[in-house]
Input
Amino acid sequence: MRRKLPIVGAIGAMLMASLTATPVFAQVATQTTGPESDARKSQMQCMWEAKWPLRHSTAYRVGDVRTKNQIRNSSNPEVRKMQGVCRALTTTSEAEKRKARLTCHDLLLVKRLRDGDDARMHADRVEKVCKTLDEPFVTPILEGNAR
Output
């Protein structure tokens, strides 16, 4: 019994330390919810969408875990071009956005040629990314959100 007391005390101390940590509602309040986080979220969704052809290949679907990891970590020209478009979402350079717009529309034409419902939905999501690039970028200061 004497041996278990220090262990129980350590567990109790860890439990009390976790209870006195920052409450969940305070953590949520400190998270950014402005245009910067929205842009970051849309960029991450775009990056996930850029790897769609890798995840929906026949080799990925029938492969074992090792093969799937290798495919997920690999890249092809289509994926690299789409990732470049995704990176242009957060840039303010008009030249980069123009180049990304042209690339996005070229990729969209290729993606529309694929058959299947999944491919059609993927092309629709890519089209939303292209439309986002077409919209003019408005800085948060011009919107009046600066504090």
The chain has ten helices and no strands. The longest helix spans residues 94-112. The radius of gyration is 23 Å.
